[in-house]
Design brief:
By secondary structure, the chain is of the alpha+beta class. The protein contains 21 helices and nine strands. The strands form two sheets. It has a five-stranded antiparallel β-sheet with strand order 7-6-8-5-9.
Length: 658
């Protein structure tokens, strides 16, 4: 490997202009391709093609020509104004719009409009309908609130797009400032930024060229790629020659091998996500490997061409650190033990599942709209009940649903759809009264489907309610060849449950595969095991912190464990590689020399990466903020473990003869 990297460094340096032009061209093409990148958080993005529930829902939607409506609630209106607005929205959006008055004793003061687009419209077309509907409502001067499944999806797309535009520049600025302060060499600062920016732009371009749309899981990948690229570069530029004879190429050779191993472990962390049954998480796993490869290739190409060793290290490790750790080794282990005990209490408090509204800030438009609409008794979460093949008569169906609603106050309304095209709307005991021109008792046949509206719940409670409703209908109406309950919301939450169920499988693969690779690469089972302990603890501590801070496992945070484990192990690899090359039998002296050599790079990479992930906090998307904050904390914890716990473990049982 030494000869290979030496020859590669010489080859690249001799062809400096050609490879620089190649990197610049690929990055430019990636940037141009990234301009076509789109965001899509619609339901099909989150479904697996082999899921029978998804197939049933598709058949159900096709058979009934269904599309989820945009709900418009008018808290103060009259029948003439309602009809006027309905007509204008229908004309502007070219969609079907239904309108009813509501409010019980105050009927005539509240109105509800349902904008029903054609099935299978693209997200951009739905966003256009939403925009035109807003304009009509704004022009009318009426007070209004919006809700519904694809309204939420459109707002997720909007915030995701905002994050795409703002997140990368913010992270780039933070990382640039941090590197400038830490490196103090303009040439090397620009080199590190190039190693981070180029692969980040390239991976977005490749994804766009492959027609891979971004979603709220994949949003973190571009800035994550930039942080990986900068980390590989910092491990080189933070080093100085051990002697006058050691050249920049020699330092490159020393760093290239552990960087290669680090990329392998990071890739394994991403690959572990492919065990998930959740399609976006599997996509993150695959594209994470691509991003890691691009970050490594760009670093290994640019570093030997442009790296210039600094005259001195930007920071130095205290010369007595190793001896101090030796003197307090058992006390330090005791401190870490008690931290683990406290962490176990946090893990026990960890929640699973989220309220969809928690994806948005407390004062956001979405939260305000949902609170206003559901506060008056109009649920915005629909369950679809598929009655195809059901032989129960209409009164039995009616009685069964209302009996169920009497036990669940979150149910607000039933919308009965009949083969004749007739639609009857009824309020449950806790729902807003609707002025419906149709009466259920006057219908001639049984409904072939029913929409059950309920107030928004957490994903776990929503799934529990969907399962209970399905079992209740089977018990009272008879079993069918398909589930009774379907719809976009149950499919979303079932996908989340599958995601959580595969969490341990994903992390288990990452843990064992990374441990094996490190042990083989370092040719030491002991080093392989010791490298795992200080890197699994940050994962354990951040999961514990999520429990203490009431941050639940959600679509975005559930991927943290595998990704963090694959990233934080990098610094341990560089440290153990250096320790293995240190000669002598005095472990304290070997540890001190290793800390002197790689310690500054470990500190800089951890701080730069941690600050970069803190940049995620500017995102308007709450789960992405949580992801950035959690990973930033993990980087700091990993730094503490690498500088204090790992040397302490190596000193356990060692007797100093000096």
């Amino acid at each position: 490997m030494v000869q290979f990297f030496r020859a590669a460094a010489l080859f690249l340096k001799r062809r400096k202009a050609g490879f620089t032009l190649l990197i610049a061209t690929v990055t430019l093409l990636g940037g141009l391709s990234s301009l076509t990148s789109r965001v899509d958080n619609s339901l099909p993005v989150w479904q697996s093609e082999d899921d029978p529930n998804w197939h049933h829902y598709q058949r159900f939607m096709t058979r009934n020509s269904i599309s989820d409506p945009l709900v418009i609630y008018l808290p103060a209106t009259d029948i003439s104004q309602l009809r006027s607005i309905r007509g204008r929205i229908s004309e502007e959006t070219e969609t079907s719009v239904a309108g009813v008055m509501a409010g019980g004793k105050n009927i005539g003061e509240k109105g509800v409009l349902l904008v029903k687009p054609a099935p299978d419209l693209e997200p951009v077309e739905l966003a256009t309908i939403l925009q035109k509907s807003r304009k009509v409502l704004d022009d009318s001067g009426v007070s209004y609130h919006l809700g519904g499944v694809w309204y939420i999806t459109a707002m997720l797309d909007r915030f995701s797009a905002q994050s795409t535009r703002t997140l990368f520049p913010v992270v780039l600025f933070i990382v640039g400032v941090a590197i400038s302060i830490c490196i103090r060499s303009r040439n090397n600062v620009l080199l590190v930024l190039a190693c981070g920016m180029a692969p980040a732009v390239q991976v977005v371009g490749v994804m766009a060229a492959a027609n891979m749309k971004l979603n709220m899981v994949l949003l973190a990948l571009p800035p994550l790629t930039m942080i990986l690229g900068t980390a590989y570069a910092v491990h080189l530029v933070a080093k100085i020659p051990d002697s006058d004879k050691q050249t920049a190429a020699d330092l490159y050779i020393v760093v290239a091998k552990p960087c290669l191993l680090s990329a392998v472990t990071t890739s394994l962390g991403f690959l572990s996500l492919t065990f998930s049954e959740y399609l976006p998480v599997r996509q993150l796993g695959v594209w994470g490997v691509v991003a890691t490869a691009l970050a490594l290739v760009n670093a290994l190409v640019l570093l030997p061409i442009y790296f210039r060793p600094a005259p001195r290290q930007p920071y130095r490790i205290p010369q007595s650190l190793a001896r101090m750790l030796f003197g307090f080794r058992y006390l330090l282990l005791l401190v870490f033990f008690f931290c683990c005990v406290g962490g176990s209490l946090g893990v026990a408090r960890l929640g699973v599942g989220t309220l969809i509204l928690d994806f948005f800030a407390d004062n956001s438009e979405v939260r305000n709209n949902y609170q206003a609409i559901e506060g008056v008794g109009l649920g915005l979460t629909p369950f679809e009940v598929d009655l195809e093949g059901c032989r129960a008569d209409k009164m039995r169906i009616h009685k069964t649903l209302h009996e169920f609603a009497s036990s669940y106050p979150v149910v607000t309304h039933f919308l009965y759809f009949f083969p004749s095209g007739q639609v009857v709307t009824e309020a449950a005991p806790n729902g807003l009264e609707i002025d419906s021109a149709q009466q259920y008792s006057y219908t001639l046949a049984a409904p072939h489907r029913v929409s059950v509206l309920l107030r928004t719940l957490s994903s776990e409670d929503t799934l529990k309610l969907a399962d209970e409703l399905d079992q209740y209908l089977k018990k009272n109406l008879g079993a069918l060849s398909h589930p009774y309950v379907t719809g976009a919301v149950p499919l979303y939450v079932r996908g989340q449950r599958a995601l959580f169920d595969s969490l341990l499988k994903s992390f288990g693969f990452a843990f064992f595969s990374i441990s094996f690779i490190i042990g083989m690469a370092l040719r030491s089972i002991r080093y392989g095991l010791l490298a795992i302990i200080p890197n699994i603890l940050p994962v354990f501590f951040i999961v514990a912190a999520m429990g203490w801070l009431s941050i639940p496992l959600s679509v975005s945070t559930v991927t943290v464990a595998s990704i963090v484990f694959g990233i934080v192990v990098d610094d341990s690899i560089h440290f153990l590689y250096r320790l293995r090359e240190e000669a002598g039998s005095n472990m304290i002296r070997r540890l001190q020399h290793s800390l002197d050599h790689v310690g500054p790079a470990i500190i800089i990479t951890s701080l730069v990466a941690g600050l970069g992930f803190l940049g995620f906090c500017v995102s308007p998307f709450i789960p992405l903020r949580d992801f950035g904050f959690i990973v930033a904390c993990a980087m700091v914890l990993a730094l503490i473990c690498d500088l204090f716990l790992l040397p302490t473990l190596l000193l356990v049982g060692y007797k100093d003869d000096e």
